[in-house]
Design goal:
A: alpha+beta; Alpha-Beta Plaits; 2 domains; B: Aspartate Aminotransferase, domain 2; seven-stranded mixed sheet; 13 helices
Chain lengths: 163, 393
């Protein structure tokens, strides 16, 4: 990978709001070149999406999250892709992953209440033909999300002058 | 009744003769101030990568708390041999040619003490790290200063070095990538210096602690040059590359003669480097490359930013190729480095280090560490811009 592209991706992965001008100040490229490069990275799907990580708890929006483990049976004509597609279209579903091991698919669900989530799983997920069983784990606390620590302890101070 | 005593009478002449450090005063000025932005640090602003800290914690839990061999843990020395063979094709025998020390500071002290007889001259290239001159003096040697110049990108030239060599010259201390200028040496430049070193039968103490922080070109260890391995002791550590300053872990690599002689001193003054730090160093060398490279890329971006920033506010600044310091020229303002730094601190609360702290050759410059957050760097450039504008009025 070209060094400049790696720089741009690292900067944006850390701060999706970094403007081409700000990025250009950090690397050996003009703002216009940065803009063009980002456009190309978006076009080719290297950059998929820009997101904000929100701590909804603080504004009083107490979302409930749950991790759901699914065991599924595959039908002759349909693979995992088809099941995943059925499931990921629900907006309540935040992530869908195919896993190795004891169960097949792991979902993250977001709802307004535990009842909300439980009913969603019971009505929309468990009733799918291919789903053999579900196991719901409610999230009690999130410590780290997408590489971001949500409650970081205070940083240690350095000496202001040293050699 | 016993008479009171004046304890200053007991202090050795050599210690009294260490030149006072202007930085003490500066340190006092800074302490107690609020809302300061510091570009005055000589260490990474990253915390040691977690996998290294975690390995140290694990070793403590296991009860790995004993002395090690005077030379250091064999696994660490073997890891260093592998690392330097892979990086440069250097071949150091882990059993006899590597010594683990308590930071490069200790390695420097014992390397100088191992080779300097009273009256020997040791060439120190300035601007450079503050410990070289006092360490030579404390060992009874005589430091001889050779300057580097902004026009040469602060690289050492054979022309500048040649006149300083006398029949009393024993050794030369090199430090590239350089603190405070960020200068590196090219292979050709280093070959010219090596020719002079060999012609005059000198020894080289090469402090290469900023080795991994080389952004343009490749680092060239002095010992990798033809015929230089046994003439050079390389001092190095993981403080800067793996953000491990507080661990106090360094190492020296050289001929078995020099390493054994250094160990003779080390065994009595230090016994061994802290075992927890040695365990951390093994982990850093085995599994720390990715985290290190991530930090280096981050420094690289800040380097770009701060150099453009200084030039945009009218402080001429070269783009340093190594370390994490920018060394802008402020001599045009009519102030001395110290005056500039002190007023800047007083008026704008930005800490920089006056260049003359690193030798007279640094007068007219400031050392500004960009091992600081981007937010701080932005604010610092803004405040310094205001300060420079204020001087013009």
């Amino acid at each position: 990978m070209e060094e400049q592209i790696r720089h741009i991706l690292e900067i944006l992965e850390n701060d999706a709001r970094a403007s081409p001008e700000e990025i250009a100040a950090l690397i050996d490229m003009s703002a216009e070149e940065v803009y063009q490069t980002i456009a190309k990275l978006e076009e080719t799907g290297v950059i998929r999406h820009y997101k904000t990580i929100v701590n909804w708890d603080i504004v009083g929006e107490n979302y409930v999250y749950a991790v759901i483990e699914l065991k599924v049976t595959l039908e002759r004509s349909q693979g995992y892709q088809a099941i995943a597609e059925r499931i990921y279209k629900f907006p309540e579903v935040r992530s869908v992953r195919l896993l190795s091991g004891d169960y097949d698919i792991s979902l993250t669900i977001r709802g307004k209440s535990m009842k909300d989530v439980a009913f969603f799983v019971a009505e929309k997920i468990a009733t799918l033909d291919q789903v053999k069983s579900t196991s719901t784990h409610f999230v009690l606390k999130t410590y780290k999300e997408n590489g971001v620590i949500l409650h970081e302890p205070e940083a240690i101070k350095r000496l202001p002058v040293s050699f | 009744m016993r008479l009171p005593c004046d304890s200053s009478k007991f202090i050795a002449e050599a210690v009294k003769n260490i030149p006072p450090s202007g930085i003490r005063r500066f340190f006092d000025l800074v302490s107690g101030l609020e809302d300061i932005i510091s570009l005055g640090v000589g260490e990474p602003d990253f915390v040691t990568p977690w996998h290294i800290r975690e390995m140290c914690i694990h070793s403590l839990e296991k009860g790995q708390t004993s002395y090690t061999s005077n030379y250091g843990l064999p696994e660490l020395r073997e890891e260093l041999t592998r690392t330097y063979y892979k990086r440069y094709g250097l071949d150091y025998d882990p059993a006899s040619e590597i010594l683990i020390t308590s930071g490069v500071s200790e390695a420097l002290d014992i390397a100088i003490r191992a080779i300097v007889n009273p009256g020997d001259e040791v060439i120190v290239v300035q601007p450079s790290y503050v410990a070289y001159v006092p360490s030579v003096i404390l060992a009874g040697g005589r430091p001889v200063i050779v300057r580097t110049y902004m026009d040469d990108d602060f690289s050492l030239t054979a022309e500048a070095l040649k006149p300083a060599i006398t029949n009393k010259t024993k050794a030369i201390i090199l430090n590239f990538p350089n603190n405070p200028t960020g200068a590196i040496m090219t292979q050709e430049g280093l070959e010219d210096v090596a020719d002079l070193v060999v012609d005059n039968n000198l020894f080289v103490i090469s402090d290469e602690v900023y080795e991994c922080l080389t952004y343009e070109g490749n680092h060239v260890p002095v010992s990798s040059l033809e015929g230089m391995k046994d003439r050079t002791v390389m001092l190095n550590g993981l403080s800067k590359s793996h953000a491990m300053t507080g661990f106090r872990l360094g190492f020296a690599m050289g001929s078995s003669e020099i390493i054994r002689s250094m160990m003779m001193i080390h065994q009595y003054c230090m016994l061994c480097a802290p075992i927890t730090a040695q365990v951390g160093a093994i982990e850093a060398l085995r599994n720390g490359k990715e985290e290190m490279e991530r930090m280096v890329r981050e420094y690289d971006r800040r380097r770009h930013f701060i150099v453009m920033g200084f030039n945009s506010i009218g402080l001429k600044c070269l783009k340093p190729k190594g370390a994490f310091y920018a060394f802008p020229y402020m001599g045009d303002t009519g102030l001395s480095s110290s005056e500039f730094a002190e007023r800047l601190l007083d008026k704008k609360k930005v800490v920089t280090i006056p260049g003359d702290v690193f030798g007279e050759a640094g007068e007219g410059f400031l050392r500004c560490a960009y091992a600081a957050s981007m937010d701080d760097l932005k604010k610092a450039i803004e405040r310094m811009g205001d300060f420079v504008d204020g001087l013009k009025k």
